[in-house]
TrEMBL record:
This is Phage protein. InterPro entries: Gp17-like (IPR021508). The lineage of its organism: Bacteria, Bacillati, Bacillota, Clostridia, Eubacteriales.
Length: 114
């Protein structure tokens, strides 16, 4: 499973450009994302059964994003856990910046032993 593809597919219906880390397009409203942390969890017999992806999804816009941030939060909650956001404003560039944070718990497939 590609976590990047999952994020893009989850946010695609919103009609915004969604890019991993860096956006180089010309739209005034867009989304970038990256993985903040990745850790193993749920150990059994010395092996982890879950991989935890800690993610940040950033909405950037020169326009009012009040409704858009609600739509993004709703979309993220359909696939991810513990969705929160911080409402920021970048004074130097005059851009609204909404930093969403969430988790994805990926269960590892068990290996069959003959």
């Amino acid at each position: 499973m590609s976590i990047n593809k999952l994020i893009i597919d989850t946010l695609r219906p919103l009609g915004l450009d969604v890019r991993y880390r860096v956006y180089s397009g010309s739209n005034s409203t867009y989304i970038t994302f990256f993985e903040l942390n990745n850790m193993d969890d749920d150990y059994s017999d010395g092996e982890n059964e879950t991989e935890v992806h800690s993610l940040q999804i950033d909405l950037w816009s020169k326009n009012d994003v009040t409704q858009l941030k609600k739509n993004i939060k709703q979309a993220l909650k359909s696939k991810f856990e513990d969705v929160t956001y911080q409402d920021l404003y970048e004074n130097d560039t005059k851009i609204f910046h909404i930093a969403f944070r969430c988790y994805f718990y990926e269960e590892k497939e068990s290996e069959l032993i003959d």
